[in-house]
């Protein structure tokens, strides 16, 4: 288990799951791949299927229609897989919590490993969040 | 030129036009008899070349009100057709065949407000899930949250 | 004797994770041709209209800003237009110029974003990287002026929340001048590249009549010869005080939609520079200080990058709206896919669906099914790969300038 976890800390493959977002966080995630930040040089890339992913970035406040599918998708993720709540909407439903089409917060559906707040979080904040997550997991490994 | 539009509508539809309120030269609100609404809407779309923007349904204290917003781009004017529907059983003839752009918004008004659009070609859920309870209309003033639990997380 | 059409089953690779449920776009195919399109929406429905009834007029622009992140200024723009229309409130000149400036800058960033995604769908990942690289200075300018790269919170009923300082104006003009060269490069290459033309000409054609019937908006309709542009037809803010042109083409195919958006970006730079120059002279304040909204109704609209955004507000004299209606342009544009995709090949589906510039999120949810038995043939990833492979084949056939310049 510890070897797998250690391997995770290099070249993280990320799956992006959009659960009723406004798309701003999604665009900022794609910005990470573009020349200004270019996270691909660290081996981090977006993958098309959760079965290949080491981490899942969930954006959006997760409305009724998306909740069941989100649960199913997360169940397909091969362990260990980090779940990262990106943006205020997935951290806390932001201002949509009281809506008739809203269900619950992401951390009531899945165990969230990292919260990256912001509306949208700046790309630097996202990188810092992922680095902090890796460092925390590495520190936990060493214990 | 814009006043010609109002005069033409009044001449063509006579008594079906219940009230005309010209708020500003750019905004006109015309209250229409619900039975004649599809004809007036078609006249605006086909004969006057107006562009259908959207329709807003509201649940008021004494009636259901729908405003059909049409833009007259050539004369910088928005003409709003207002109909008032019965509170107990709001029902109106659908415009979807005659003004194709109204098809989706009528589906939305039906599922969120419970207004019946007679003879609509494809009335099914647009936004809400299919397991949303029948008869539960979120945009109504007296909507009861059926979902239970905190934040409705048991629904 | 009737022969049954032979349907090809394309082996499905890694399943798209959201496969089990009905998707946003379900393309029914016979062989390679799309014969029917099912559209299902609601994945982003958050009940914003109902939420707005519980917020004060000052809070509503913050809520509507988060309807869409890409055109995050368009909704507040229409929102403040609607709220001001209720009482007929006028806004100071300086605020009008600032509003116009922010709105047009957003159009540049949105169109560059779309250009990048269109390049990605066609298989030109370098176009994606370059278009988004040139987006960064625009976002930096936004951050300088408003404090955030997206979700600027600049609008309030009666004016704008923040002023543009005089010392920021030269920075803005310098950035806009620097942007003109890449935009002209994009324009020239897009207009003349043989592979791009082979992929996008006569693909996904929407006729003039289709657009008028369905009320299609924005570049989607302007590419088909329908010259609807709210900025010119129903002037608001400072659009009637600056010099600019509406871009209209007539073929209605995907190529025309590319051309309209690229040319519009050049117009945006023109408008932005004029606004910045005017801001050096016009100094009558940025806020009308509206104290209350009287009972009544107001309609407000704005020409967002995707088309007309329309908001309607009904007030009863209290500080919260009785009814707040929002209509995004994609609501009118998405149904046009029924006409644009049907009859064309499945490898063209990605670029056709993307050509109306819907939410990036929504196009991710597309699947292809066999028209005869409804079985799923491929998911989004395969659809995208098919589109990119088609471009590769064409690149062997033609010499693409894009290859030499971009890669």
How would you summarize the topology of this molecule?
The complex is a heterotrimer of chains A (143), B (155) and C (407).
Chain A: H1 2-8, E1 13-18, H2 24-31, E2 45-46, E3 55-59, H3 64-75, E4 82-86, H4 88-92, E5 114-116, H5 123-142
Parallel strand pairs in A: 1-2, 1-3, 3-4, 4-5
Chain B: H1 2-13, E1 17-24, E2 27-32, H2 37-47, E3 51-59, E4 64-72, E5 77-85, E6 91-93, H3 103-113, E7 116-118
Parallel strand pairs in B: 2-5, 6-7
Antiparallel strand pairs in B: 1-2, 3-4, 4-5
Chain C: E1 25-30, E2 33-39, H1 48-52, H2 60-65, H3 74-87, H4 93-122, H5 125-146, E3 155-156, E4 159-160, H6 169-192, H7 194-200, H8 208-214, H9 219-222, H10 230-233, H11 254-279, E5 296-304, E6 307-315, E7 321-327, H12 329-333, H13 337-341, H14 349-355, H15 360-363, E8 366-370, E9 376-378, H16 380-397, H17 401-406
Parallel strand pairs in C: 1-8
Antiparallel strand pairs in C: 1-2, 3-4, 5-6, 6-7, 8-9
Q: If you had to describe this structure to a student in words, what would you say it looks like?
A:
The complex is a heterotrimer of chains A (143), B (155) and C (407). Chain A has 143 residues and is an alpha/beta fold. Chain A has a single domain, classed as Rossmann fold. Chain A contains 5 helices and 5 strands. Chain A has helices at 2-8, 24-31, 64-75, 88-92, 123-142; strands at 13-18, 45-46, 55-59, 82-86, 114-116. In chain A, strands 2-1-3-4-5 form a 5-stranded parallel sheet. In chain A, strand 3, helix 3 (64-75) and strand 4 (82-86) form a beta-alpha-beta unit. Chain A is globular. By secondary structure, chain B is α/β, with parallel strands linked by helices. Chain B has one domain: 2-Layer Sandwich (Beta Polymerase, domain 2), CATH 3.30.460. Helix content of chain B is 22%, strand content 30%. Chain B is built from 3 helices and 7 strands. In chain B, the strands form 2 sheets. Chain B has a 5-stranded mixed sheet with strand order 1-2-5-4-3. Chain B has a two-stranded parallel ribbon with strand order 6-7. Chain B is elongated, with a radius of gyration of 17 Å. Chain B starts with a helix and ends in a 37-residue tail after the last strand. In chain C, the strands form 3 sheets. A 4-stranded mixed sheet of chain C has the order 2-1-8-9. In chain C, strands 5-6-7 form a 3-stranded antiparallel sheet. Helices cover 48% and strands 12% of the residues of chain C. Chain C is built from 17 helices and 9 strands. With 407 residues, chain C is an alpha+beta fold. Chains in contact: A-B, A-C, B-C. Chain B binds chain C through residues 23-24, 26-27, 29, 51-54, 56, 58, 60, 67, 69, 71, 73-74, 76, 78, 80, 100-101, 103-105, 125-129, 138-139, and chain C through 41-42, 45, 47, 49-50, 85, 88, 212-215, 228, 233-235, 296-297, 299, 301, 308, 310, 312, 314, 322-323, 325, 327, 331-332, 335.
């Amino acid at each position: 288990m510890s070897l797998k976890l250690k391997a995770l800390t290099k070249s993280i493959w990320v799956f992006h799951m959009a659960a009723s977002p406004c798309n701003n966080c999604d665009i900022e995630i794609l910005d990470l791949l573009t020349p200004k930040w270019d996270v691909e040089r660290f081996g981090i890339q977006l993958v098309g299927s959760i079965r290949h992913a080491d981490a899942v970035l969930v954006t959006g406040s997760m409305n009724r229609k998306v909740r069941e599918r989100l649960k199913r998708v997360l169940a397909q993720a091969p362990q260990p897989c980090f779940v990262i709540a990106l943006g205020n909407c997935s951290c806390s439903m932001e201002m949509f919590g009281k809506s008739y089409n809203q269900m619950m917060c992401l951390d009531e559906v899945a165990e969230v490993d990292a919260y990256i707040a912001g509306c949208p979080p700046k790309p630097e904040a996202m990188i810092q969040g992922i680095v902090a997550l890796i460092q925390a997991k590495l520190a936990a490994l060493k214990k | 030129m814009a006043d010609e539009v109002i005069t033409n509508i009044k001449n063509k539809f006579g008594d079906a036009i219940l009230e005309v309120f010209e708020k500003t030269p750019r905004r006109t609100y015309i209250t229409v008899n619900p039975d004649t609404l599809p004809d007036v809407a078609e006249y605006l779309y086909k004969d006057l070349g107006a562009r259908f923007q959207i329709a807003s349904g509201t649940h008021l204290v004494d009636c259901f009100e729908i405003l059909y917003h049409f833009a007259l781009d050539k004369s910088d004017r928005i003409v709003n057709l207002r109909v008032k529907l019965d509170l107990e059983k709001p029902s109106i003839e659908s415009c979807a065949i005659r003004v194709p752009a109204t098809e989706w918004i009528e589906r939305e008004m039906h599922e969120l407000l419970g207004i019946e659009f007679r003879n609509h070609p494809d009335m099914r859920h647009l936004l809400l899930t299919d397991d949303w309870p029948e008869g539960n209309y979120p945009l109504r003033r007296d909507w009861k949250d059926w979902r239970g639990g905190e934040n409705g997380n048991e629904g | 004797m009737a022969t049954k059409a032979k349907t090809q089953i394309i082996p499905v690779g890694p399943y798209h994770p959201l496969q089990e449920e009905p998707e946003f776009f379900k393309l029914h195919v016979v062989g390679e041709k799309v014969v029917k399109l099912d559209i299902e929406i609601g994945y982003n429905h958050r009940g914003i209209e109902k939420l707005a009834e519980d917020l004060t007029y000052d809070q509503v622009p913050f809520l509507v800003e988060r309807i869409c992140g890409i055109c995050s200024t368009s909704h507040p723009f229409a929102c403040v237009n609607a709220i001001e229309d209720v009482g007929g409130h006028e806004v100071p000149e300086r605020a009008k110029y600032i509003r116009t400036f922010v709105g047009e800058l957003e159009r540049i960033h949105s169109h560059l974003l779309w250009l990048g995604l269109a390049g990605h769908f066609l298989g030109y990942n370098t176009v994606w990287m370059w278009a988004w690289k040139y987006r960064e200075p625009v976002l930096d300018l936004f951050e300088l002026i408003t404090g955030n790269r997206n979700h600027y919170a600049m609008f309030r009923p009666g004016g704008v929340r923040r002023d543009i300082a005089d010392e920021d104006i030269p920075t803005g003009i310098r950035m806009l001048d620097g942007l003109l060269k890449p935009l002209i490069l994009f324009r020239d290459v897009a207009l003349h590249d043989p592979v791009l033309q082979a992929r996008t000409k006569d693909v996904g054609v929407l006729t003039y009549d289709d657009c008028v019937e369905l009320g299609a908006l924005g570049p989607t309709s302007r590419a088909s010869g329908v010259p609807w542009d709210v900025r010119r037809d129903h002037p608001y803010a400072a659009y009637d005080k600056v010099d600019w042109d509406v871009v209209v083409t007539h073929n209605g195919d995907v190529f025309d939609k590319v051309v309209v958006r690229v040319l519009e970006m050049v117009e945006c730079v023109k408008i932005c520079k004029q606004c910045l120059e005017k801001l050096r002279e016009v100094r009558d304040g940025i806020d009308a200080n509206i104290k209350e909204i009287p009972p009544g109704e107001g309609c407000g609209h704005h020409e967002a990058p995707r088309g007309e955004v329309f908001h309607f507000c009904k007030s009863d004299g209290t500080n919260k709206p009785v009814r707040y209606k929002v209509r995004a342009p994609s609501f009118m544009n998405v149904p046009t896919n029924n006409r644009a995709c049907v009859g064309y090949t499945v490898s063209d589906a990605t670029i056709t669906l993307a050509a109306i510039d819907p939410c990036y999120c929504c196009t991710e949810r597309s699947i292809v099914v066999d028209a005869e038995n409804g079985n799923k043939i491929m998911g989004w990833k395969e659809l995208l790969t098919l589109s990119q492979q088609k471009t590769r084949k064409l690149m062997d056939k033609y010499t693409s300038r894009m290859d030499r310049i971009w890669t």
